[in-house]
Amino acid sequence: MSRPLQITVLGATGSIGLSTLDVVARHPRRYQVFAVTAFSRVAELYKVCLAHRPRYAVVADEVQARSLQAQLSLDGLTTQVLAGEGGLCEVAAHPEADVVMAAIVGAAGLRPTLSAVQAGKRVLLANKEALVMSGGLFMQALRDSDAVLLPIDSEHNAIFQCLPSDYARGMAEVGVRRILLTASGGPFRELPLVDLESVTPEQACAHPNWSMGRKISVDSASMMNKGLELIEACWLFDAKPEQVEVVVHPQSVIHSMVDYVDGSVLAQLGNPDMRTPIAHALAWPERIESGVSALDLLRVGRLDFQAPDEERFPCLRLARQAAEVGGTSPAMLNAANEVAVEAFLERRIRFTEIASIIGDVLNCEASVPARCLEDVLTADRRARVLADSWLDRHGR
Ligand code: NDP
Fold this sequence. Notes:
alpha/beta; Rna Polymerase Sigma Factor, Chain: A; 15% strand
């Protein structure tokens, strides 16, 4: 190997960002951290800079940038600190960056992730919201560039591993009947329905199998995460919504499956630790050590499967409908969900009202074709206004 690959980690202070840095640090001859970014956790980013000595760090604004720059200079680091969305796009598309981990949460990751795609990088996609919002445009940008897109979501990474290498020819052409997207069912899978109204953000964030950021933890509890993943799978693998079946699998050991026309079902298994898909995508088509312990099937003992309960999890139904409608509907679904989840985390709404807000927004605003990025961003803004007005109307 000539020189270590240069890695930009967008969202370096988050759960996926830190797991990525952990894997990268295990292979210093293969990988070097080129740029890291944060939003609110600047003290955490400072520690990341001390540990990995990147060429660039990006924070939210100029004030934070000046203060971090001064601190790093005092420590003798030559790291250059940039600010804002411009800084994020710059380190995502920088000519010297080889690999970009897209791990910013939510719509904020859209432009930097697209910049990495347009610049032809190897893009490791954790930021599913970017693809959900702009699917058709995103995939077109991928086709128009030399970029390689590798899914980080454990389900999509599993599907990618179970598909043949020429899957881009089309599902039918490569003999795929269905994608079986597994879901843990989250912390409220068995909670009596009447108690769902009164669950707290702490309960929603206490996922039984995975340790994740707060927004995706709430999405997992409402199963909106599975809905977003369904839309993500449709774009990544050129599948129709009806070709993606959600299967609740509480142990989270099978990360997803592919069902072939000859009756074969291929599955990818592993311990629930995001360092496995991260290491897979970093090294693909090779394999590297990730720090994840070997799966002990005897200890797991059994694998259970159930159908998802859409009465309990209306967000899953709303997401499937948005996938079927297409156009700007997924972008509106995503934006309304982001506003609702934030309001739930701030204890302004009940857990069950997350779906009410999203349903209300989708009913109020018709989907239009997403012909350009501005169409997507307009739909995103409009959905946020409508979700905010729901909060106002209900005195939250
Ligand atoms: P976290 O909340 O742990 O981290 C999010 C990261 O994004 C942080 O670095 C945060 O910075 C940064 N960020 C937040 N808002 C902004 C903004 N407005 N502008 C720029 N940066 C911002 O999230 P996760 O790591 O859990 O998730 C990241 C993405 O990966 C999500 O899209 C999620 O759906 C996806 N994903 C996560 C999985 C997991 O196991 N965690 C599994 C599969 C997918 P700061 O911390 O400084 O505020």
